[in-house]
């Protein structure tokens, strides 16, 4: 499988403008075993030149890691905090002070998502939803941040009834007491309707009425395109039809100038026996075509001049999520930074996890236990047969002189020597794959070319780290094989000087 490296994603990053160029962003969920640290996650974002992210909370360490990167961030009020905020202006003001004001302008927060699919997932909070938005907005106005930061709430498309033909769509009237004031709030604040659009579920629930190609943006012959008999608008994909259904549903309530921001869309790469179309190929096809479709800036058949920026769900596979097998397989990347699949995009301007040079590196996790990292370093420089001489005092990679930096060099040397084979960048869970070249100064890492980075010498390949032959790291940690190696080398150099 091809591995992700530096992309031209900056071409997609633009300011939030629905009448200008659209952009693609990503959601970052955290229900992940061995979740990468915020620093590692930001390193992946930067390596991919991803300029727009949505968080499902307002995690302080993540916001600090995003500081001074320029990445535009949507922070979220989790559903379990919504009731308190919706019932108290002071609680909302405290939330904004702690999670927004404390971080701007260093962290480029551009929107606040208040709750997530509240009407369908937390209906008991629906009566205070608009109050929560208003209280959050008041706090932003008081801080003079209301022009910079928009406030909205992501809705599920399941609240739209009779969605095809789009011209007949309307919001579930059960929610009229909420939707009318919500749309009035969005209109008065110049915000947008946040919508989670999942053609995968529309397709799965259609009982074969919706063709797979129609859900995946695959080209359809004109006679197979869906036509709205009331407007004679032609629809070549589910995505556009659902968004236009939302536009028509808003117009039914007399709101015609509120743009839509798609806060979630994607396709799972793996599913259970009842989910045969959750495959890597379909996920690849959908997301590749979605990116291409959004970036062509043509809007939808109803609103061709209004672009629809979209956040892909999601950055990582969240393997800890419960439910059907597909729930844990929406990610573009595994937790170790390797892509789940390589997106198929035309031409040399590639996006997300697609590269011909296959440059990836193995690095030590900065938040891992230092003793485990040291043990793995001792193993790599001993039984792993990595040439660690560049780490000796006075050599190109001796600085920074700490276990994480030295282990990163050794881990990557082993990983490259093993031809990046599966399991060769694990080291008992203290290492991960990255697309960011860790070379610095005159220290060139294996895999990046140049001095001490072209090939790793060694006549025999070391055993895979996860194999039973690799033994326990502790046998190399006690007494510190690498530490002893360094001391011996220094003593020998001192004898030469004498």
UniProtKB/TrEMBL annotation:
It comes from Medicago truncatula. Keywords: Cell membrane, Disulfide bond, Glycoprotein, Glycosidase, GPI-anchor, Hydrolase, Lipoprotein, Membrane, Plant defense, Signal, Transmembrane, Transmembrane helix. Its EC number is 3.2.1.39. The keyword Cell inner membrane does not apply. Its main location: membrane. The keyword Amino-acid biosynthesis does not apply. It catalyses: Hydrolysis of (1->3)-beta-D-glucosidic linkages in (1->3)-beta-D-glucans. It is found in: Cell membrane. It is a lipid-anchor; GPI-anchor. GO terms for biological process: carbohydrate metabolic process; defense response. This is glucan endo-1,3-beta-D-glucosidase. GO terms for cellular component: plasma membrane; plasmodesma; side of membrane. The chain crosses the membrane at residues 476-497. Residues 1-17 form the signal peptide.
């Amino acid at each position: 499988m091809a591995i992700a490296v530096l992309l031209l994603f900056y071409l997609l990053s633009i300011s939030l403008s629905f009448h200008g160029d659209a952009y693609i962003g990503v959601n970052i969920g955290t229900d992940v075993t061995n979740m990468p640290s915020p620093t590692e996650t930001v390193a992946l974002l930067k390596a991919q030149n991803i300029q727009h992210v949505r968080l499902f909370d307002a995690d302080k360490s993540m916001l600090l890691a995003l500081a001074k990167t320029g990445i535009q961030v949507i922070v979220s009020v989790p559903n379990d905090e919504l009731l308190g905020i919706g019932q108290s202006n002071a609680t909302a003001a405290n939330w904004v002070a702690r999670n927004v004001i404390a971080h701007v302008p260093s962290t480029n927060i551009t929107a606040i998502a208040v709750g997530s699919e509240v009407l369908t997932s937390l209906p008991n909070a629906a009566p205070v939803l608009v109050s929560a938005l208003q209280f959050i907005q008041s706090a932003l106005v008081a801080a003079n941040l209301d022009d910079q930061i928009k406030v909205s709430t992501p809705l599920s498309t399941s609240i739209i009834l009779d969605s095809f033909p789009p011209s007949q769509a309307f919001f579930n009237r059960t929610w009229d007491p909420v939707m009318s004031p919500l749309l009035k709030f969005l209109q008065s604040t110049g915000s947008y309707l946040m919508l989670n659009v999942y053609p995968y579920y529309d397709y799965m629930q259609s009982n074969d009425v919706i063709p797979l190609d129609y859900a995946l943006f695959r080209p359809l012959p004109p006679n197979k395109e869906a036509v709205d008999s009331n407007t004679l608008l032609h629809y070549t994909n589910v995505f556009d039809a659902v968004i236009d259904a939302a536009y028509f549903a808003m117009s039914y309530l007399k709101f015609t100038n509120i743009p839509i921001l798609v806060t979630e869309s994607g396709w799972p790469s793996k599913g259970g026996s009842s989910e045969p179309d959750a495959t890597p190929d379909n996920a690849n096809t959908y997301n590749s075509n979605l990116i291409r479709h959004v970036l062509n800036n043509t809007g939808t058949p109803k609103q061709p001049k209004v672009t629809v920026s979209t956040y892909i769900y999601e950055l990582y596979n969240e393997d800890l999520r419960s439910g059907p097998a597909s729930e844990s397989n929406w990610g573009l990347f595994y937790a170790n930074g390797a892509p789940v699949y390589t997106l198929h995009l035309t031409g040399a301007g590639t996006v997300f996890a697609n590269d011909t040079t296959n440059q990836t590196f193995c690095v030590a996790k900065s938040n891992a236990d230092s003793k485990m990292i040291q043990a793995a370093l001792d193993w790599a420089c001993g039984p792993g047969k990595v040439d660690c001489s560049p780490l000796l005092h006075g050599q190109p990679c001796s600085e920074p002189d700490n276990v994480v930096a030295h282990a990163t060099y050794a881990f990557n040397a082993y990983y490259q020597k093993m031809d990046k084979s599966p399991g060769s960048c694990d080291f008992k869970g203290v290492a991960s794959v990255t697309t960011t070249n860790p070379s610095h100064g005159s220290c060139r890492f294996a895999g990046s070319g140049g001095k001490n980075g072209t090939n790793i010498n060694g006549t025999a390949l070391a055993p895979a780290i996860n194999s039973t032959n690799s033994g326990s790291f502790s046998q190399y940690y006690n007494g510190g094989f690498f530490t002893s190696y360094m001391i011996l080398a220094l003593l020998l150099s001192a004898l030469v000087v004498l």
